[in-house]
Design brief:
single chain, 1048 residues, alpha/beta, seven-stranded parallel beta sheet, 32 helices, globular
């Protein structure tokens, strides 16, 4: 029996544009269902068709929809209206109106076969610099994006990642994105993606799970429901998160599914937290880094993500096993955990620039300044007494050196007497359980040193306290009498709400900066960092006594994400608007919170033993956008020569060394660990080994680019050229928004100006409910509902309080969507024809703007381009450069004169006279489209071959690397078996798993390479062109206009 589509239903074809459910979509696939239906009103069985659609709305980039075409109500194929058959004399559009529609179409052609034709920079509200385009260039040059963005703290890695994500979405190379970040940064990422790129992300956590289940049912999975999500790296390894993830990963693993990946793009922020902890020392040698639960969870996710962006200014903790595990998650085609690090491959995936290497960007060199103080006799006595008790207890128990408990107690004492008091109180509280202490070196590295956990003080579970409680079984204070301990506790508790010598120095500095006359508050701000919540509470209590009350803001580990964002917004608002002058924070604020807008002074009240954490602190003010010289203060003892002042002085020198380190901190970490243990405990953890091949490769990659400034010049030139080609001007932007407002019967923008800029600045009027989503982000967290003024000028958008309406802004996206939908609608309000008189034009001509779309297999859009063709009204075709100039002048206010009624009647008559002019223009358009298509086909072919060559080169290098690495590892087993026997069972198992994984990869590498090549080829197969007309411009010389006017 023959089976037909339903009677009267026009089926769409892949590549066509359709309207479904009130939105505009591109058809990517049409499948006939396997069984015909025979409904009651059909005389014979007919097929239903499943149509796969991809959204063309820029605010729903990459969103997909599958519908049964015959069952959809109100669907339609958007017709290609082509050039008009006839033109009525009264059916000409205003050039200004048509110009807005043309720009909307021009800006909507976002997919390009040219990897250098960036689009996302013009859809970003961030203040962009040329160096931030380099990751984008790298991402588009490869068939798959695998990058480690390791720029210096404060250079804008979030912006760089956002540009890559948006470009992949615009080019239809991605539709789903997952961002994994520390819990404290989830809201920041959500706000940045919405405000700077117009991309909405959903934060997936337990609350979102509950909300989605109430809305969609008990089986709802947020990771399936929402195409763009943010998850916390602390939540990801949990039972709930893993259950959701297993469902999504299973979808990607099923052989019958079309989707090979669970998510198209994976972004990991502060990626050093997902690498395995530094390996512990064993018998004076090196151990082997073991995967944490977080590492395993992230690797499972990364394996099912196509494009991967890992962000960290401090990705290398000094231990190559840990770093190679991180690299394998970034690009498993180049790196394997435990294998030798390929130097060339590392440079391919790493983007690393230091502030000192970026010329002409006014990065101020940080100034390190001491805050001098003189320790008091009672501080020296108390510290000397603690040291003596710890040493006596060690000797009593037969230990030659102080242990980790001694280091922990001293570390708290050096932070503040109050932190020491609270620590001693917890240590002496026998109701708190001990947890059993393992290897000393494990605890030093993971709790206090370079592998220090990112868990924050103030939470219920805190690694240092757990470690201290565990040491009670060995009683590191066994030599102390009850009176000794009570005296120490009483001394320390006596500082409750009372400053010691160091806090007095801090208060004096704050007073000198914030209220030098003791009364009047200046518009200056200071950030104070401390490692411990107890020290923070003590500092805050003293400052409140000194009158800082409402001038203080506090961020600690237990501060909620919403409250943290409120504090950040207050601190970054103008001091004339917000009273806060001093922010006191633990390291909870050390990552991801930008504080440079109105602050350039930072005080490290104590010194963490982790160099990376110290650099993260400084990076809060020493970053892009800082207009002043960053001033970093450390407390430095002066005058007294006691043990306490000696140890405080050592920490100040250590902090100064870290703050001035110009290269990768990873190379410094092991040295710092050794210096600390040697100074405080009198023992060396291990001998410093010579830097081998892997260490040198890492040093080279993380030293930054020596060719940077030459690259920046080319990127800047390309960015500016692209702006001109897109006709991206402030006047054009305003025209598009006003035209969309006018078309939907809304009030227009009102020019209000600003003292901060000479550019045009506008107030946004009250708009109807349908426009409210377009206004998101115009108000602020501190002033909800109060819309800030807007500008279409990129430079003016840098002024505080003024919002730049870029191509990705919700207001512009809605406007362009309205105009494009109307232009191609059968019920369009525009005729798509205009007529103008151009002074200085040599020949009267007809110019047509058309859109070429090339669609590959599965409806993948490979290339979109708006092009111009034209013919003289009398004569032959016109040069392309001339046509572009004609089009721009014809549609830009001030460049043309409106054609009068007589001229328009003459042009209509000329067009309608037998269709000769129209035929010439249609033929010229087809010829030009064919020429463009041939050129793009050649480019795509070259790109396909380049991608294949790249894939083959990657696999050849990886095959050689795996072979060499396995040979070296097996040789190591034979030659160093005695050392390996000292490792823990867990370490030996991890090493065996890594070797087995390398052997399995090597065995399957040929098949993996074949699959990768097939995936590359499929992108460029079955390419089909679609051409549609956009607008017709009839441009007339002044001589012809005068002649035709007289004839009438």
């Amino acid at each position: 029996m023959s089976v037909k589509p339903a009677r009267g239903v026009r089926l769409p074809e892949p590549g066509q544009v359709v309207q479904v459910r009130g939105a505009v979509w591109a058809v990517t696939d049409v499948d006939a269902q396997g069984l015909p239906r025979s409904s009651a009103d059909d005389g014979q069985p007919r097929l239903d068709h499943v149509v796969t659609l991809q959204s063309l709305d820029e605010d729903r980039m990459g969103e997909e929809l599958r519908v049964v075409w015959e069952l959809e109500v109100g669907n339609s194929v958007v017709p290609d209206r082509g050039l008009p058959e006839n033109i009525a004399a009264g059916a000409f559009d205003s050039p200004d109106t048509l110009g807005a529609f043309v720009d909307a179409v021009r800006w909507g052609a976002v997919t390009s076969a040219d990897p250098k034709a960036f689009q996302s920079p013009f859809r970003s509200g961030a203040t962009l610099e040329a160096y931030q385009l380099e990751p984008l260039r790298r991402a588009l040059a490869a068939p798959r994006t695998n990058l480690l963005l390791a720029d210096d703290v404060g250079l804008g890695k979030t912006i760089e990642a956002g540009l890559v994500v948006e470009e992949l979405l615009l080019r239809h190379r991605a539709r789903s994105v997952i961002i994994v970040c520390p819990p404290s940064l989830s809201l920041k990422w959500q706000d940045e993606m919405r405000e700077k790129f117009g991309l909405d992300f959903v934060i997936v956590d337990s609350a979102r799970m509950a909300e989605d289940r109430r809305t969609y049912g008990l089986a709802a999975n947020p990771l399936r429901l929402h195409p763009r999500v943010i998850v916390s790296m602390a939540w990801l390894p949990g039972v709930r998160a893993q259950r959701l993830l297993r469902e999504v990963l299973a979808d990607a693993e099923r052989s019958q599914t079309a989707r090979r990946y669970a998510f198209d793009v994976l972004v990991v922020d502060e990626a050093h937290h997902v690498a395995p902890a530094a390996p512990s020392a064993v018998g004076g040698g090196r151990g082997y880094a073991v995967d944490s639960q977080r590492t395993r969870a992230l690797r499972r996710l990364a394996d099912k993500c196509e494009h991967r962006l890992f962000l960290s200014a401090t990705p290398h903790n000094g231990y190559t096993e840990s770093f190679s595990a991180l690299l394998e998650m970034i690009d498993p085609r180049r790196f394997a955990r435990g294998a030798r690090i390929d130097e060339d491959a590392l440079k391919e995936v790493t983007v690393r620039r230091l502030k000192s290497q970026i010329a002409d960007k006014d990065f101020q060199k940080r100034r390190i300044q001491p805050l001098l103080y003189e320790t008091s006799p009672d501080e020296e006595r108390a510290y000397a007494k603690l040291d003596a008790l710890l040493r006596d207890s060690g000797r009593e128990q037969g230990r030659r050196h102080l242990d980790i408990a001694a280091l922990l107690l001293k570390k708290r004492f050096l932070s503040s007497p109050w932190a020491f008091a609270k620590t001693l109180e917890g240590y002496l509280d026998q109701t708190l359980p001990g947890v059993g202490l393992g290897d000393y070196d494990d605890y030093y590295t993971e709790v206090m040193g370079s592998g220090q956990s990112d868990e924050e003080e103030g939470l219920l579970s805190q690694p240092e306290l757990d470690t201290l409680l565990a040491t009670r079984k060995s009683d590191p204070l066994s030599a102390a009498t009850r009176r000794d301990l009570e005296e120490l506790a009483d001394w320390a508790s006596g500082y409750q709400s009372r400053p010691d010598s160091r806090l007095n120095a801090l208060v004096d500095m704050l007073d000198a900066v914030c209220r030098p006359d003791g009364k009047t508050w200046m518009n200056e701000r200071v950030v104070v960092f401390t490692e411990y919540a107890d020290t923070l509470e003590w500092i805050v209590s003293v400052l409140r006594q000194r009158g800082y009350g409402k001038r203080l803001a506090v961020i600690r580990g237990s501060t909620s994400a919403d409250e943290r964002e409120d504090i950040r917004a207050r601190f970054n608002d103008s001091p004339s608007e917000e009273d806060v002058r001093v922010l006191v924070a633990t390291d909870a604020a050390g990552e991801g919170i930008d504080l440079q807008t109105y602050c350039h002074r930072l005080v490290n009240f104590d010194v963490p033993f982790n160099p990376s954490r110290l650099e993260q602190r400084v990076g809060r003010i020493d970053r892009y956008g800082q207009r002043e010289t960053p001033e970093v203060y450390y407390l430095k003892p002066d005058g007294r020569n006691g043990l306490y002042s000696g140890h405080q002085g050592f920490l100040e020198r250590l902090a100064h060394k870290i703050a001035t380190e110009k290269q990768d901190l990873g190379s410094v970490n092991p040295l710092i660990d050794e210096e600390i243990t040697a100074h405080f405990l009198g023992r060396h953890r291990r001998k410093t080994s010579a830097r081998g091949h892997d260490e040198k490769a890492i040093d080279s990659a993380l030293a930054g680019s020596s060719k940077l400034n030459q690259q920046l010049t080319a990127l800047t030139r390309g960015y500016e050229d692209r702006k001109v080609a897109m006709h991206l001007t402030p006047e054009a932007g305003r025209r598009v928004v006003d035209e969309a407002l006018h078309m939907t019967h809304q009030p227009l923008l009102e020019e209000v100006g600003s003292e901060l800029t000479d550019a045009s600045v506008f107030a946004v009027p009250d708009l109807a409910r349908s426009w409210q989503d377009a206004l998101i982000g115009l108000d602020t967290r501190l002033r909800p509902g109060e819309l800030r003024p807007v500008t279409f000028d990129e430079d003016a958008g840098r002024a505080p309080g003024i919002v730049h309406v870029h191509l990705g802004h919700p207001l512009m996206r809605k406007s362009t969507r309205i105009l494009r939908a109307n232009l191609f609608s059968p019920h369009s309000e525009v005729n798509r024809v205009t007529a103008v008189v151009l002074p200085g034009l040599e020949h009267s001509c007809a110019a047509s703007m058309s859109r070429l779309v090339l669609v590959g297999r599965g409806g993948l859009r490979l290339h979109e381009q708006v092009f111009v063709t034209g013919v003289r009204l009398r004569g032959h075709r016109i040069a392309e450069d001339t046509l572009h100039e004609v089009l721009d002048r014809s549609l830009d206010p001030g460049s043309y004169r409106l054609a009068g009624p007589e001229v328009r009647r003459h042009l209509a008559s000329l067009w309608n006279d037998g269709g000769h002019l129209r035929t010439r223009l249609v033929e010229e358009t087809a010829r030009r489209a064919q020429s463009l298509q041939a050129g793009v086909h050649q480019s795509l072919g070259e790109r396909c071959q380049a991608d294949l060559d790249r894939v083959r080169g990657i696999f050849a290098a990886f095959r050689a690397n795996l072979t060499d690495s396995l040979a070296n590892l097996h040789a190591q087993e034979r030659e160093q078996q005695a050392m390996l026997d000292l490792w823990s069972g867990e370490q030996r198992q991890q090493r065996a798993r890594d070797i087995r994984a390398m052997e399995d990869r090597l065995e399957d590498l040929a098949g993996e390479e074949t699959r990768e090549e097939a995936a590359v080829r499929s992108r460029y197969e079955d390419v089909r062109p679609y051409v549609s007309s956009v607008a017709l411009v009839l441009a007339v010389t002044e001589e012809d206009a005068e002649t035709w006017g007289r004839q009438s």
